[in-house]
């Protein structure tokens, strides 16, 4: 199946500093997080999700998100006007902390599963959407950009299969709230190319494809195949995590996002422009892997490292 000619440029949204690190048991200090963000920006990434203002009781790794953002400002990364550093916020308290830190873009999240929503934020899907109404109104009044996430779009760890019509309905509601872009997340990585494409095509009947992003975890090794599949539908925005870091505190067994290095290797091979430099990206991956004391989860990064060693 040939790729549509419209997909010539892809935007990569780097979620490693937030989605990648949130599940790490080893506490990552502020200077290491900021160093990672600087290296990712230096590699050419224009969107780097830098943290989240969630309760440190539930996600201890994100307790320093305010300090991270203030450090980003202090070290003048924000002078790169084309780069955004969104922060995830779950409620008004999170938004207040984001505003206090001077954040200019936030992300809000819902899930296509009632059980997951209860486990994750202790409320129903309906309540989660209503909870965000006040958050979005305040954020818009403060001139913040707002991105939306939907979790469990291809399956839930508690309910199993989900309805793509439910995914579509939530996407429409997030759009109505004011989200400029909606990221559709396979949180537990159970999707396959066929189901991923079907889900995207269902949602795209109601929302412009240009406003949709895809967020695939690689639990079953289907991440890149799923990305290739939804490229066929015209998706041109993909979330990924440096070195394949990640997982979800509320989805036991879910592995990290598709590795940014693997995604870039595939897109480079398809002559799709990203404006991301592979050599600098590898430096960023090596930096965080060395701190964490582990080998990269990126197959491309490992292959290129082994090749350069010989």
Strand and helix order: EHHEEHEHEHHEHEHEHEHHH
The total of beta strands comes to 9
Number of domains: 1
CATH fold-level label? TIM Barrel
SSE diagram, text form:
Elements lengths: L10 E4 L1 H5 L9 H13 L4 E2 L2 E2 L12 H10 L12 E2 L3 H10 L3 E7 L2 H8 L3 H17 L3 E7 L12 H14 L3 E6 L6 H12 L7 E5 L6 H9 L5 E4 L19 H10 L8 H15 L6 H11 L1
Parallel strand pairs: 1-2, 1-9, 3-4, 4-5, 5-6, 6-7, 7-8, 8-9
Helix pairs in contact: 2-3, 2-11, 3-4, 6-7, 7-8, 8-9, 10-11
Quick take:
By secondary structure, the chain is α/β, with parallel strands linked by helices. It is built from twelve helices and nine strands.
What attributes characterize this protein structure?
alpha/beta; 310 residues; 13% strand; nine-stranded parallel β-sheet; TIM Barrel
Folded structure, characterized:
The chain is of the alpha/beta class and 310 residues long. The longest helix has 17 residues, at 125-141. It has a nine-stranded parallel beta sheet. The model has no long low-confidence stretch (mean pLDDT 92). It has twelve helices and nine strands. It has one domain (11-309): TIM Barrel (Alpha-Beta Barrel), CATH 3.20.20. Helices cover 43% and strands 13% of the residues.
């Amino acid at each position: 199946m040939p790729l549509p000619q419209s997909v010539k440029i892809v935007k990569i949204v780097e979620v490693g500093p937030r989605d990648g690190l949130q599940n790490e048991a080893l506490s990552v200090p502020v200077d290491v997080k900021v160093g990672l963000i600087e290296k990712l920006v230096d590699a050419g990434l224009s969107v780097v999700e830098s943290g989240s203002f969630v309760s440190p009781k539930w996600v201890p790794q994100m307790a320093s998100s305010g300090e991270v953002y203030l450090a980003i400002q202090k070290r003048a990364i924000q002078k790169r006007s084309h780069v955004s550093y969104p922060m995830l916020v779950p409620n008004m308290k999170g938004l207040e902390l984001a505003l206090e830190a001077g954040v200019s873009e936030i992300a809000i999240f819902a899930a296509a599963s009632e059980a997951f929503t209860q486990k994750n934020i202790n409320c129903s899907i309906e309540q989660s959407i209503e909870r965000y109404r006040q958050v979005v109104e305040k954020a818009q009044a403060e001139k913040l950009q707002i991105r939306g996430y939907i979790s469990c779009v291809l399956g839930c760890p508690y309910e199993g299969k989900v309805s793509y019509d439910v995914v579509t309905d939530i996407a429409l509601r997030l759009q109505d709230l004011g989200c400029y872009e909606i990221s559709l997340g396979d949180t537990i990585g159970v999707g396959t190319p066929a189901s991923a494409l079907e889900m995207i095509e269902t949602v795209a009947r109601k929302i412009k494809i240009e406003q949709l992003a895809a967020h695939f975890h690689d639990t079953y090794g289907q991440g890149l195949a799923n990305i290739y599949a939804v490229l066929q539908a015209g998706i041109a925005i993909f979330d990924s995590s440096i070195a394949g870091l990640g997982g979800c505190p509320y989805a036991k067994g879910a592995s990290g996002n598709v590795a940014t290095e693997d995604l870039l290797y595939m897109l480079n091979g398809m002559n799709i422009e990203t404006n991301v430099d592979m050599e600098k990206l590898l430096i960023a991956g090596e930096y965080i892997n060395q701190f964490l004391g582990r080998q990269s989860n990126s197959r491309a990064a490992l292959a290129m490292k082994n090749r350069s060693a010989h």
